[in-house]
Write a structure and sequence with these properties.
heterodimer, A: about 250 residues, alpha+beta, Ubiquitin-like (UB roll), 5-stranded mixed sheet, B: about 230 residues, 3 helical TM bundles of succinate and fumarate reductases, two-stranded antiparallel sheet, elongated, binds protoporphyrin IX containing FE, binds iron/sulfur cluster, binds FE2/S2 (inorganic) cluster
Chain lengths: ~250, ~230
């Protein structure tokens, strides 16, 4: 049943990338358990604005779990304590009256804080720009059976394509590694005939860019997969390793 | 090729291959060690040790093994340092509550350093005495090898005397458990690193890896323990 709860929020506030930053404590009252986590922050911000204070800066866009803009490390988890959802899909019914909630930005050298809870995730775009695409226009939708694609490949490609580029995998990783993201973005294309042609070049370029940008080396702990809002499997990392190694050995 | 080995995946490849190589070595090592449990005063073990020491194949493998260890240790430390830098110094105030991540997988360096400390002691106990300084316990004994009486080094006597001390046995048991933990993650991880895994094989490799890791870890510990308990005097 819906009810209203009172909460204590510990929110990371940081004015600029260079600012040291620190936690601020806020009390919020009468939060509906039917509201979403971002609505909680909206309520907080309204309260802050009414008090003449600066609102908390946080990323968001679609608010339905598809754009990958929302982030937030909540009570020890990227995207909060629920599994396989984004922060914008997290509901306040997951919390109890009187709870204290810690709200922090993604922490990784690859994702520097810009302001408060917003981090710079440009590095992901740079990795995509290095090869996460198909070079030629593949035309309109082809006839269903014109290019046969094994069902398993189609399924795995679709699963990989569900990655929304949010960066929770990096935020969860003790090595600051972006391998789950990169492997999903390489796999979604490499598994299909149109993308397969460039698979080797794509793997090499994306990994090289990822390394340049200072992301860490994957040690297969699997924290990324547990925290990924889209349940991307680290089997894609094995596929990327395979593709990358065989591409390099053929050089 | 050089760009491969400088890349993240290339460095991990060295880690995985050296790890796989060391794991193969451990299996052979354990097989020979298991002969220590044959109650014949060490004759079978000494004959096997003699065969290993005089075999040209082993002469090639020994330096390879040293290289394997060095590559594994140097790259292990290098990767861990790079990863700490990539992670950055800021920590989460609300901690890390991710479930389902094994402790071993997050502490490979600490486990590795424990193994290294053990390795130094182990090499000092046996390899140094057998190959460099010698030891009165090693004086030749005669064993029958395929019906031929042969003079061989009494490696058994040295091992048996070393395992007469309780602290040595405790160190071996602790190292055995450390090894099992290191490999409980390391085994499947090395296959994932070289690209040999998917959703199905991951389950198989994790099970196989745990069986291997605990078999080898407990195996080495048990040999030391049984030597202490039942093979003295
Ligand atoms: C008998 C000895 C050892 C064996 C059989 C062994 C085996 C392995 C294996 C199979 C892996 C997984 C590799 C991968 O993920 O691709 C691994 C990882 C690792 N080992 Fe060892 N290891 C041994 C000793 C050591 C020692 C002495 C160190 C010393 C520092 C060490 C440090 C590490 C580290 C830091 C990792 C994690 C690195 C990573 O996954 O990228 N290991 N080991
Ligand atoms: S792999 Fe998962 S956690 Fe990583 S960016 Fe994609 S959706 Fe986010
Ligand atoms: S705001 Fe778009 S996924 Fe959360």
């Amino acid at each position: 049943m819906e009810k209203n709860i009172n909460l204590t929020l510990k929110v990371w506030r940081q004015n600029s990338p260079k600012d040291k930053g620190g936690f601020e404590t806020y009390q919020v009252k009468d939060i509906s358990t039917g509201s979403s986590f971002l609505e909680l922050l909206d309520v907080l911000n309204e309260q802050l604005i009414n008090e003449g204070k600066e609102p908390v800066a946080f990323d968001h866009d679609c608010r339905e779990g598809i754009c990958g803009m929302c982030s937030l490390y909540i009570n020890g988890h990227p995207h909060g304590p629920d599994s396989e959802i984004t922060t914008c899909q997290l509901h306040m019914r997951k919390f109890n009256d009187g709870d204290t909630i810690w709200i922090e930005p993604w922490r990784s050298a690859g994702f520097p804080v810009i302001k408060d809870l917003i981090v710079d995730r440009d590095a992901f775009d740079k990795i995509i720009a290095a090869g996460g695409y198909v070079s030629v226009n593949t035309g309109g939708v082809p006839d269903g059976n014109a290019i046969p694609i094994p069902k398993d490949n189609a399924d795995e490609s679709m699963d990989a394509a569900s990655c929304i580029g949010c960066g929770a995998c990096v935020a969860a990783c003790k090595n600051g590694s972006a391998m789950l993201f990169v492997s999903a973005k390489a796999s979604q294309l490499a598994l299909l005939p149109q993308g397969k042609v460039e698979a080797a070049r794509r793997a090499k370029n994306m990994v090289a860019r990822m390394d340049d940008l200072g992301f860490g080396n994957c040690t297969n702990t699997g924290a990324c997969e547990v925290e990924c809002p889209k349940g991307i499997s680290i089997a894609h990392i094995a596929r990327l390793n395979r593709e990358y190694l065989s591409a390099k050995l053929q050089d | 090729m050089s760009s491969l080995l400088c890349s993240s995946i290339g460095k991990k490849l060295l880690m995985g291959l050296s790890g796989l190589f060391l794991m193969m070595f451990l299996l052979i090592h354990l097989t020979v060690n298991s002969l220590l449990l044959i109650p014949d005063g060490g004759d079978t073990f000494n004959a096997a040790a003699h065969f290993m020491a005089t075999n040209p194949f082993i002469a090639v493998v020994e330096p390879l093994l040293a290289i394997g260890f060095i590559v594994h240790i140097v790259w292990g430390i290098l990767l861990t340092l790079q990863n700490r830098k990539a992670r950055g110094s800021a920590r989460y105030a609300s901690g890390n509550k991710t479930k389902g991540v094994t402790w071993a997988s997050q502490n490979m360096l600490i486990l590795g350093i424990t193994l290294f400390a053990f390795l130094v002691l182990h090499v000092a106990h046996f390899w140094v005495k057998m190959k460099l300084t010698g030891d009165p316990l090693l004086n030749d004994v005669t064993v029958n090898i395929a019906g031929v009486p042969t003079e061989v080094e009494n490696a058994y006597a040295l091992i048996n005397a070393t395992f007469a001390e309780l602290w040595v046995v405790i160190v071996y048991v602790v190292a055995g458990i450390g090894l099992a933990l290191h490999l409980s993650h390391g085994f499947w991880s090395s296959f994932q690193t070289i690209g040999f895994s998917n959703d199905i094989w991951r389950k198989r490799l994790t099970i196989l890896g745990n069986v291997y890791a605990w078999f080898v870890g407990i195996g080495f510990s048990l040999i030391a323990l049984l030597q202490y308990l039942f093979f003295q005097g």
